[in-house]
Amino acid sequence: MSVSVIAKHFNRTLALSCTLIAISQINYGFDNQAFSTTQSMTAFTKQFGDYDAETDEYAIPASFLSLLNSLNYIGFAVGLMIGSLISQKYGRRRCMFAMSCYALVTATITVTSQTKAQILAARILNYIYVGMELSVVPVYQSEIVPAPVRGFVVGTYQLSINMGGVIINGICRGTSTIEGNNSWRIPFGLFYAIPSIILCLIWFIPESPRWLLLQGRTDEAEKSLKRLRHGILTDDAIAAELASLKLGLAIEPEKGAFTELFQGVNLKRTSIVIAISFFQQATGQAFASQYGAIFVKSLHTINTYNFTIITSCIGVAVCLWSNFFNDKIGRRKLFIAGASVQAAALFTMAGLGTANPVIHGESTGIAAMMAIFAAGFGLGWGPLTYVVVTELPALSLRDHSQRVASLVNIAVNFAVTFSIPYLLYDGYAGLHSRVGFIFGSIAVAACIFTFFCVPDCQGKSLEEVDRLFHEGISVRKFKGFEIPPLDEAELGEKETRSETRAV
Predict the structure, then answer these.
(1) Does the N terminus or the C terminus of the chain have fewer Cβ atoms within 10 A?
(2) pLDDT tens digits, 406-425
């Protein structure tokens, strides 16, 4: 998809909305990479680690490292639930305003941390913000953009996380030579920047038209849609899109109850969403993102900070390419390609780690495979997970579905992140790079699942996706299936049946 094709679907309001929401996700990348990279800093290790008399060095114990990189997902889950409820009841914009206010408080706790308990509490509390963000941002993105560029826009969720990683890793590279705690306090100070921008600009973008229709606020939905489509579509085309949104909601049989996620055709949709969320984390991305810096440092092959910058830049470049082309190539092909690259890198890394001893050349190869693994993740499962999990659910169940999918994502991420130190280090499993055998096998399973179970929905509106599921079309035929218009008799029957939605 060319830049000109993308540009014709955007006006000033939609471009501002998408840009601002993309910026909001950078803070996730700041947190994710800042904690990963600062763990390898001497000052951070001295402040929060333990002194080892035998080596005459400070080190962060594996037990605390596991807690620091896993307990934050408690905050993640809490934030997800809070954010989802606020977003569902009060709107997407108010949720983003609330989470930004909260983020300024947790940034202060992080920057002023002095003890293990405080830095651990700061990370847990800051991830409440991250959870709120995950609950609202991909949903809002999917609801405001035209179908032909939905994959491009929603995919910016992962792209922005990667961009945040590039920025914070570059800053960490620069501050790593500073003596004392300012080396890690300065990167953490960036946690103030993004929430401040969102607080200032959030009210300049419109609320989601689909959310407004769900609240029965039709006039406001019309105004919002006109702002998002003005200059892109004619007045008649805008009116036709609004009518389509209203019709899609009218004929949707779901009433918005949580239990409907697991009933009828929605069980299939929920199962796909849950499985995708599972595989995104189970293939081991936390190994590269959370422990990559400290693991590479243990290899003694490349400057840790240079490596994190390199992998972050690779992630941005590959993710950007995926965003540009997933609406053309399709979600399934990129999912399979990404998981294949991940599996190949993981198995190669694990194989190199079977040498005894692991010499310098093999250690260099292991580090290179981690970079290739990051590229595979950025190609498919990084950006496209957020696209697919937001375009498959029924409109009235989207918040419920996002909540369930994200909780699964968080639970798996917690399990992987918590277990990695015990899988890696001597004194426990001692697998080192051989953990690639575990995660690589899961990546192969992800390929198989995608081939048989994941639909391609690019180019179709959310309402059209809903009809494909309810009309029993095989998920492997979604991409090329032409949806016939409803005839008057069928439309009247569906509208009559749907009148009980509000009861």
Answers:
(1) C
(2) 899 989 988 888 888 888 87
